[in-house]
Write a structure and sequence with these properties.
With about 220 residues, this protein is of the alpha+beta class. It has one domain: Roll (Pnp Oxidase, Chain A), CATH 2.30.110.10. About 15% of the residues lie in helices and about 30% in strands. It is built from five helices and 14 strands. The strands form four sheets. It has a seven-stranded antiparallel β-sheet with strand order 3-2-6-11-12-5-4, with helices on both faces. A three-stranded antiparallel β-sheet has the order 1-13-14, with no helix packed on it.
Length: about 220
């Protein structure tokens, strides 16, 4: 029996958001009030993350000024709260490009989303109580991306990881249960959840402790 192999077609997508977790970044404004912004251009390496942000965004400006933020990861149950932050900005006046896209200034993003700020331990911005995961981070360095300088990539180092007990693997203090953790995913501007595991993973045979980033972990313990 022959197998039909699909062929590729060259296209020119306007965006390349094939699917990444949604992150609610809390940061501190100039007056000390918190800003809260959804984004999905993020990935993790050890206890560090790389964040891609528009350089004119309020969150990027706050990170450049203060050097710290909290990465709050909402579950798929919080899709409505995340969507209430769509088309909002903490910048006043609203940047021209955002104004063209329909954004409006909202000074209290937590209230707009219906979420609860709780104090962090090592940084000034608050965590989001409803998010099952929250990571307090500090900026290690930042890099311009592209030729026009409109995007900046932040490398942040995690100092604290907080999780709801319901997603922690029972009996452990260093494992998240992937069967219990249901992250909210953005794919091409639409919000999705995960399905159940579709296949066994050979990589899962490797103990997670073998990936522990000892240097950053030791620094986090003293923060």
């Amino acid at each position: 029996m022959s197998t039909v192999v699909a062929t590729h077609t060259a296209i020119e997508p306007n965006i390349l958001y094939f699917g990444t977790p949604v992150v609610l970044i809390s940061s501190s404004n100039e007056d000390g009030t918190p800003n809260l912004a959804p984004m999905s251009s993020a990935f993790w390496l050890g206890w560090r993350a790389v964040l891609g942000l528009g350089v004119r965004a309020k969150t990027a400006q706050n990170l450049l000024r203060t050097g710290e933020c909290v990465l709050n990861l909402p579950s798929d149950a919080l899709a409505g709260a995340v969507d209430r932050l769509a088309l909002t900005t903490g910048s006043d006046p609203v940047p021209a490009r955002k104004e063209q896209r329909g954004y409006g200034f909202v000074p209290d993003k937590f209230r707009r989303a219906g979420l609860t700020p709780v104090p962090s331990e090592t940084v000034a911005p608050p965590r989001v109580a409803e998010c099952p995961v929250a990571m307090e981070t500090v900026v290690e360095r930042h890099h311009p991306v592209g030729d026009d300088g409109g995007v900046v990539a932040f490398e942040v180092r995690v100092q604290r990881v907080w999780v709801h007990d319901e997603i922690r693997l029972a009996g452990t203090d260093d494992h998240v249960d992937p069967d219990a953790w249901r992250p909210l995913i953005m794919s091409f501007q639409k919000l999705y959840g995960l399905t159940s595991q579709v296949h066994h993973s050979t990589l899962a045979r490797i103990p997670e402790r073998l990936y522990r980033p000892d240097g950053d972990l030791e620094r986090a313990r003293t923060a």
